Amino acid sequence: MQIGNIKIPEYPLLLAPMEDITDRSFRKICKSFGADLLYTEFVASEALIRNIDKTLKKLVIDNDERPAGIQIYGHRIDAMVEAAKIAEEAGPDLIDINYGCPVKKIATRGAGAGMLRDIPKMIEMTKAIVNAVKLPVTVKTRLGWDNDSIIIDKIAEQLQDTGIKALTIHGRTRSQLYKGKADWTLIGKIKQNPNIRIPVIGNGDITDGISAKNAFEKYKPDGIMIGRASIGRPWIFKEIKHYLKTGEILPEPDINQKVDIAKQHFKKSIKYKDGNRGIFEMRRHFALYFKGLKNFKETRLKLLTSTDINEIYDILDQIKLKYGNSHSTENAKQ
Question: In whole angstroms, how far apart are CA 136 and each of 4, 77, 165?
Answer without folding.
Answer: 6, 18, 6
